[in-house]
Amino acid sequence: MTDSLARELACIDCGTVHPLGYRLECEKCRGLLELRYDLDVLRARGPALLAGGGLWRYAPVLPIADPAHRVTLGEGGTPLLDCPRLSKVLGVRSLAVKFEGANPTGTVKDRSSATGVAAALQFGFTATSVVSSGNAGSSIAAYSARAGLRSLIFAYARASAPKLLHMAATTADLVLYEGVYDDLITHWDRLVESRLFFDCGASRNAYKHEGKKTIGYEIAEQSGWRPPDVVVAPVAVGETFIAAARGFREMRDAGWIPRVPRMVAAQATRANAISRAFRSGRPLEPLKIGYTVAEGLAAGNPGRKGEWVLRLLRDGRGAAGDAEDEQILEAQRTLARTEGIWAGPTGVATLAVLGKMLAAKELDPAQSYCAIVSETGLKTEAAPPSRAATAFDFDSLERLVEQRLARA
Amino acid sequence: MTDSLARELACIDCGTVHPLGYRLECEKCRGLLELRYDLDVLRARGPALLAGGGLWRYAPVLPIADPAHRVTLGEGGTPLLDCPRLSKVLGVRSLAVKFEGANPTGTVKDRSSATGVAAALQFGFTATSVVSSGNAGSSIAAYSARAGLRSLIFAYARASAPKLLHMAATTADLVLYEGVYDDLITHWDRLVESRLFFDCGASRNAYKHEGKKTIGYEIAEQSGWRPPDVVVAPVAVGETFIAAARGFREMRDAGWIPRVPRMVAAQATRANAISRAFRSGRPLEPLKIGYTVAEGLAAGNPGRKGEWVLRLLRDGRGAAGDAEDEQILEAQRTLARTEGIWAGPTGVATLAVLGKMLAAKELDPAQSYCAIVSETGLKTEAAPPSRAATAFDFDSLERLVEQRLARA
């Protein structure tokens, strides 16, 4: 078993360094925190540090110290599939798909669920929680079950049926919210402060976020430590994008890879706050959004992580784009028919954006590309689950949480 | 790239040896054929022969000579998950789940689709075909697309909606059959004789069958070449069971493992022809069957592969059992809640049977067990696909095949 080289938490805004521990923001400025590792050891030992397969192969660059806490359902080690037929359709020299639908619950979220739930164990929590449109909910529920922890999953009542079914199967505590989704998140953030449960949300927890960094490490290692010129990552609040970019920078700083790939942020046009801000050069403005087929990208207000994405894009000569729902559905069909890969609309938004930006000559077809396809196509449509509790405001939510924890 | 050590096809009934080639049965007695490998090389080189990851790591014991034909979507390399909580529920010392839902299309079928479609390339075919209740259809369609081949997928009109959706996404040629399912298979067998397409069915093709052997190799390698005492495998016509058993025997004969695990055949009670024959000691009799939640196990007439399963069970001191639909659904819930693994009813039949046989003291709780869980839970329920052709008898089927191949 390999040791974790995590050494500290650093504020991404003011740079203040904090010791390792369960802490959601900077004590000084309330900024977001990121984990830092012992770069000297990474540099000296190189990839020979890595051992075993799947996500925990990268344990040295993950923040879980005790191997007994490293919960697993076999996540990570997903295929990086060279796609010659799709490359031809898009008119690009070389394109590989990193297919995250191969993870245990069918999404990239399993990477962050593994480190999130492992961190809940590490810090002595007995329950986890997340607000989710579906993928995160079933993933956190599954990993919590695997670790023997309770999970409290809050889902929007209009979440798609197969995702509701999956959540209902993996948690004993699914709560459907019938009010406004943004209100639910605000209410839930308040619940986090009370420390009734471990924060498995996407907005602040650096430990949970960290698991997704392994997608960058895998892309690099599967490319013989010479990653493709450009990596296209989906952006809702930006977890996957930020984590992948951080992974590439860490590897470059440690001398594992010669240079970092250029990062492209892909959004749905119906939820394009970050792409819009980046392309216009203006500050990030929250959007009131409606439905998009890319359910996992439906974030109107990406908050502080959105700002972080913009900073990474601007510092790293990145690019951003967005695609209409029809383009996303077309990309889904094209990927299935040309390469046999069946991914969900949330997953193929990167390919839709890539195709659009290539057609508009915003990207160079002579470069090599990797598109992160974040979810399986198997979560599309189904009948609603039969069992669930409902809530409609903060008080009813809190009651439910307390009742359910009391029942444990 | 590693060479294939396949050397010949041997009849499992009369022992006649045939050279490698596309041949569906013994020339002499019409018996089923199995592939044989160069055991001397396997014995001399040992597991050091293996290289790379996923299914094609086992290329030396697969029958595809040219690496260019080895089509892949990242199948194989699925997790073998130790399940301490579930072990406690079932009252058994040690239980690991081999989770095949992690394959690219969510089922164990991806293993045989990989070698089936690779063999279609190897023998110069431009189209593949299969009759399917869902899993095999979308899997063959996906691998065919990946290889640039046409696929003709014949499905029963009453197949479950998410499976129909998945098939419709991955093939341009989905044919829904509205007559009697057994008639469809008889019709289709006649089409195979005409060699319009490569046979990707489960009944005869040794090349297609062979990919599933890798599940045995993986279980052994993931157990440090000391496989568990007992392996529980699902049985419809018996592909997975036979392939796993053959893999274990091959490894024992080559000296890679000290002994073969005891094999338990798991069926749904509503389609239990093999379990019934084995337990009563009587010959295999086809059953008229109705619906079972374990859709992938709904085979009333397992045919010659069913006889092969019985022979393996009788020769190898195996065991067999079956579980009612309610027990299967209960096993599905228990697996999700205790270990976070979301599998389909077809997938968890092995666990339901294991639980039932342990409770009846037909199996020893002090032994170590591995249950093959053959499919993800993500294929449960959905709305029907919008597009598909229909057929109702042999002539209309044949017309459709010809029309569609002509359109290629």
Describe this structure in words.
- Two copies of one chain form a homodimer.
- Chain A contains 14 helices and 14 strands.
- The first copy, chain A, has 408 residues and is an alpha/beta fold.
- The first copy, chain A, folds into three domains: 6-69; 80-105 and 208-379, Rossmann fold, CATH 3.40.50.1100; 109-204 and 381-406, Rossmann fold.
- In chain A, the strands form three sheets. In chain A, strands 4-5-13-10-11-12 form a six-stranded mixed sheet, with helices on both faces. A five-stranded parallel sheet of chain A has the order 9-6-7-8-14, with helices on both faces. A three-stranded antiparallel sheet of chain A has the order 2-1-3.
- In chain A, α3 (109-122) crosses α4 (135-147) and α12 (325-339) crosses α13.
- Chain A starts with 5 loop residues before the first strand and ends with a helix.
Number of helical segments with 4 or more residues of chain A = 14
Major sheet details of chain A: 6 strands, mixed
- Runs of chain A with pLDDT <50, length 5+? 382-389
- Overall geometry of chain A comes to globular
What name is given to the CATH topology of the largest domain in chain A? Rossmann fold
Share of helical residues of chain A: 25-40%
For the record, the count of structural domains of chain A works out to: 3
Whole-angstrom Rg of chain A: 20 Å
Distance between the termini of chain A: 33 Å
Mean pLDDT of chain A, as a whole number?
A: 91
**How many beta-strand runs of chain A?**
14
Main sheet of chain A: which strands, in order across? 4-5-13-10-11-12
Structural class of chain A: alpha/beta
CATH architecture annotation of the largest domain in chain A: 3-Layer(aba) Sandwich
Beta-strand percentage range of chain A: 15-25%
CATH class of the largest domain in chain A: Alpha Beta
Q: Tell me the quaternary state.
A: homodimer
